[in-house]
C-alpha cells in the first residue's frame, strides 16, 4: 500500500512515520504540510491510504477531500474531538485523537487494511456526502481551488448531476445534490424556494405573483427566480411576511 501524510504539524508527521516503520507492506510516498499539497500528492501518487489532519491552514481536511476524485482510504488524525462524528459520517477508515498511542494507531491500520480488502473504494467515493458546508464552499475553477464565502452566494441552482453556485464573480459548478445544500446551508439565510433553486434570502428585493399559485423572487442582482407554493410558504415564514 502507498500512503501519504497530510498534516501541518511536523511532530505529528514524525510520530506517524515512526509508528509506520514496522509495516513493511505500507510505503510512505510523501508528506504534505497542507491540503493544497495533499491534493497534488494524491493526484501524483494515487495512494491507497492517507493520514489526514482536519484543522489545517488554507483549507481543512474535509474541504480537501471534497476536491479529490475517487479518494483513497482515510485515517483522520486531529486534536479536536468535535470532528469525530463528522469524520465517521465521511466514512473514514478510522479517527485518531491526538495524542494517540502506538496501540491505537495499530488498530486504525488494521481497520484500514480490512476496508481495503472489502469495499474501500465504494466507501471512499461517498466521502463527505453527509458532511454539511461550513461558512464557505470550496470549488474547482479551471483547475484552481476557489473558496467562496457563503455571504457571496446569491443562489444555488440544480444543473443535472451538479449544482451551479451563482455569485457576483460568476457561476461555479460543484458535484453535489440540492439536498446536500438544503440541509447544510444556514436555513434562516438560504431557502429552498423551488425544486431547482435555493436563494440567499437577504438578497431578495421583491416577491411578485406569477402564474396560478407561483411567484417570482427578484434579487438585488436582477435575477428572477421561480418560487413554488411550498417555497413561498417558507419565504413568508422566514421573512415574516
Walkthrough of the structure:
This protein has 2 domains: 2-125, 3-Layer(aba) Sandwich (Rossmann fold); 136-239, Beta Barrel (OB fold (Dihydrolipoamide Acetyltransferase, E2P)). The model is unreliable at 119-133 (pLDDT under 50). The longest helix is centred in the middle third of the chain and has 16 residues, at 102-117. Helix content is 31%, strand content 33%. The protein is built from 8 helices and 15 strands. The protein has 241 residues and is of the alpha/beta class.
Overall helicity: 25-40%
Question: How many helices does DSSP assign?
Answer: 8
CATH class of the largest domain, named Alpha Beta
How many domain modules? 2
Radius of gyration: 21 Å
Q: Separation of termini?
A: 59 Å
Main sheet makeup:
5 strands, parallel
Say how many strands there are: 15
What is the chain-wise order of helices and strands?
Answer: EHEHEHEHEHHEEEEEHEEEEEH
Uncertain spans: 119-133
Q: Gist?
A:
This protein is of the alpha/beta class. The protein has eight helices and 15 strands.
Layout of SSEs?
Elements: E1 2-6, H1 10-20, E2 27-32, H2 35-45, E3 49-52, H3 61-66, E4 73-78, H4 84-89, E5 94-97, H5 102-117, H6 120-125, E6 136-141, E7 144-149, E8 153-159, E9 162-167, E10 170-174, H7 178-184, E11 190-194, E12 197-200, E13 204-209, E14 215-219, E15 224-227, H8 229-239
Parallel strand pairs: 1-2, 1-3, 3-4, 4-5
Antiparallel strand pairs: 6-7, 8-9, 8-12, 9-10, 11-12, 13-14, 14-15
